[in-house]
Design brief:
Fumarylacetoacetate hydrolase, domain 2; 2 domains; SH3 type barrels; 12-stranded mixed β-sheet; mainly beta
């Protein structure tokens, strides 16, 4: 059985670094990063003493729409015959604890809890059989969406692309099997989304194979695999948490611009 490894990207005393999690509360520094060769070094640092950053710096986020049957039914749209792709920009990325900002342009901003797949090396025309070799790890992801603008525009770029609309983290997790993980989203402590990744219409390896036929995926790029039913709005003052079995919990407060 593959060992599960958890990495974090953080800032401490004004400097960015990568760390290797020891248990639940401590980090060892690493020389290098989890996208290439690295060495685990001393000292041991308390996780509480660092500010966590997003555990990837994507050139792009490739997000998948309508990848759970119940969500497609919820929004009254036909199930896609192929993965339905859209892009979120790197400027939307924030880390754990960072604030999701409600823009003045929108009157309804929704949470969408998802499993995120982080690419580890350049991927072009990858087969499903070989897809696992291109995965750096997994993250919790929140595909924040200005729902009113999505419906208004009839295409999704504006609704998905505001700054702070791509929370991810808290850790980059290697060595897990993503095919049947529990995923929940909580709004102010109340469960609003609950599913298992076994319910994905297009699973992780199929997504990597499909997307890499369209565009080259680069190290650090993120695939957001889609959300389940239960989408709903967030208000300033709310707190949203995406939790994925074996991956962790990503919590972000919501504020007004």
């Amino acid at each position: 059985m593959t060992e599960i490894e958890r990495f974090c990207h953080f800032i401490r005393e004004g400097s960015e670094a990568w760390g290797y999690l020891i248990g639940e509360e401590e980090i060892k520094l690493i020389k290098g990063d989890p996208f290439g060769e690295y060495e685990v070094e001393d000292p041991i640092i308390a996780l509480a003493d660092v500010k966590l950053l997003p555990p990837a710096k994507p050139s792009k986020i490739v997000a998948i729409g309508l990848n759970y049957r119940d969500h497609a039914e919820e929004v009254k749209l036909k199930l896609p015959e192929e993965p339905l792709m859209f892009l979120k920009p790197s400027t939307a990325v924030i880390g754990p604890g960072d604030s999701i900002v409600i823009p003045p342009m929108s009157q309804r901003v929704d949470y969408e809890g998802e499993l995120g797949v982080v690419i580890g090396k350049e991927a072009k025309n990858v087969s499903e059989e070989d897809a696992e070799n291109y995965i750096a790890g997994y993250v919790c992801f929140n595909d924040v969406t200005a729902r009113d603008l999505q419906y208004k525009d009839k295409q999704w770029t504006r609704a998905k692309s505001f700054d702070t609309f791509a929370p991810m983290g808290p850790f980059l997790v290697k060595g897990i099997e993503p095919s049947d993980l529990e995923l929940t989203t909580k709004l102010n402590g109340t469960v609003v989304q609950s599913t298992r990744t076994s319910q994905l219409i297009f699973p992780v390896k199929a997504l990597i194979a499909f997307i890499s036929q369209v565009m080259t995926l680069l190290p650090g790029d993120v695939i957001a695999t889609g959300t389940t039913s239960g989408i709903g709005p967030m208000q300033p003052g709310d707190e949203v948490t995406v939790t994925i079995e074996e991956v962790g919990s990503l919590t972000n407060p919501v504020v007004k611009a």
